[in-house]
Amino acid sequence: MRKQKHLDDLTAQAANLGAENNHILTNINHVTQLYLNVEADNSVLRAQISELNHRLKSLTDIISCMRLDGAASPGFDDYDHDHDQMIGGGDDLFSPWSLVHVKQPIMASSDHGFMY
Questions:
Q1: Taking burial as the number of CB atoms within 10 A of a residue's CB, which of 39, 47, 97, 112 is the most buried?
Q2: What is the reported pLDDT for 116?
Q3: pLDDT value at position 1?
Q4: Total domains, the chain
Q5: Is the distance from CB of 115 to CB of 35 less than 8 angstroms?
Q6: How many Å apart are CA 16 and CA 23, to the nearest integer?
Q7: What share of the chain is helix, strand, coil (3-state, %, to 5)?
Q8: Which residues of 12-49 are buried (b: 16+ CB within 10 A; e: fewer)?
Q9: Cβ 92 vs Cβ 100: under 8 Å
Q10: Burial class of 99 by CB neighbour count within 10 A (0 to 12, 13 to 18, 19+)
Q11: How far apart are CA 92 and CA 59, in angstroms?
Q12: Distance between CA atoms of 92 and 77, rounded to whole angstroms?
C-alpha cells in the first residue's frame, strides 16, 4: 500500500513537471519570436542609420563645396535676402537641423508589434 501511494505521488509529480516544462517551453518560444522581431527591427534601423549617415555626409560635402565656391566667387552674396526670408529662409541649406525639404518620414512596420 505504501509503495502504491509513493508511486502515485511520483506519477503526479512527473505529470506536474511535464506540464510546467510545456509552459516554460511555450514562454521560451514566445520570447524567442519577440527577440527575432526586435532583431529584425534593429537590422532595419541599422540600415537606416547607415543610409542617413551617408546622406548627411553627402549634404555636408555639398555645403562645404557651396561655401568654398561662394568664397571664391565675388557675386555669391548679391542675391535678395529679404525675398528669401519671405519664402522660408535662405539659411535652411546651411543649417542641418532645419532641412525641411530633405526630411522624409521613417516608416515602421506594424507587423512586428510586441505582445504582452
A1: 112
A2: 44
A3: 87
A4: 1
A5: no
A6: 11
A7: 75, 0, 25
A8: eeeeeeeeeeeeeeeeeeeeeeeeebeeeeeeeeeeee
A9: yes
A10: middle
A11: 12
A12: 15
Start-to-end CA span in the chain (Å): 48
Looking at the domain assignment, is residue 12 inside a domain? Answer: yes
On whether residue 27 sits in a domain, the answer given is: yes
3-state per-residue secondary structure call for 49-83: HHHHHHHHHHHHHHHHHHHHHHHHCCCCCCCCHHH
Say if 107 falls within a structural domain. Answer: no
Whole domain around residue 43: which residue ranges? Answer: 2-101
Cell of 40: 529584425
What's the Cα-to-Cα distance from 81 to each of 20, 24, 65, 76, 88, rounded to whole Å?
A: 74, 68, 21, 12, 11
For the chain, which residues score pLDDT lower than 50? 76, 84-88, 100, 116
- Cβ atoms within 10 Å of 112's Cβ, excluding its own: 15
Q: Do the beta carbons of residue 19 and residue 100 sit within 8 Å?
A: no
